[in-house]
Specification:
The protein is of the alpha+beta class. The protein folds into two domains: 49 residues, no CATH class; 104 residues, K homology (KH) domain (GMP Synthetase, Chain A, domain 3, 2-Layer Sandwich). It contains four helices and six strands. Strands 1-2-3 form a three-stranded antiparallel sheet, with no helix packed on it.
């Protein structure tokens, strides 16, 4: 993105609401990419050996789904705190489907997720109705979930109330 475009976009948002994050990454002509998050550590994405990688880390698409779980967790925590909702644990299980023809060059098939399924168990002493209010607000605010929705990924998200 050019600095002029970035400047125009950023000028529309009040400075107090801007957050800037950076990272550096390197790929040495393999399937493996080293990602350095600075003070937050390093990570590796790779492909399974069966797909030409070294199986040294999650695939980039698995990393996105991991980011979805992490983002839902952070957003749920913030929302629960604001709504005085008590809980002791979130447990995530996630999966996705892709049509590999897209990443193999068939431009009629999108190369990213066809569908994502997410199951979240919430252990809480509060009522299912109170939980639903936090869920509704969390899903509206979660940046990664909204990114997937905006990409027209079919999302199947199931929340389960686990009484304490």
């Amino acid at each position: 993105m050019s600095s002029e475009i970035r400047s125009n976009i950023m000028s529309e948002i009040p400075e107090d609401f801007i957050r800037r994050k950076t990272l550096v990454a390197q790929n040495d002509a393999t399937m493996l990419t080293n990602i350095n998050y600075g003070e937050f550590g390093v990570a590796i994405t790779d492909e399974p050996k069966a797909h030409g990688g070294q199986s040294a880390g999650p695939s980039p698409l698995q990393a996105v789904i991991g980011a979805l779980c992490g983002c839902e967790g952070v957003t749920f925590r913030r929302t629960a705190t604001e709504m005085n909702f008590q809980y002791s644990k979130l447990e995530f299980e996630a999966g996705f489907t892709i049509d590999i023809r897209g990443r193999m060059g068939d431009r009629t098939v999108r190369p990213h997720f066809q569908s994502v399924k997410l199951s979240v168990k919430v252990t809480t002493p509060q009522t299912p109705e109170e939980l639903q209010a936090v869920i509704d607000e969390t899903e509206a605010r979660c940046p990664v979930m909204n990114l997937l929705q905006d990409a027209n990924v079919k999302l199947d998200v199931q929340w389960q109330h686990i009484p304490e």
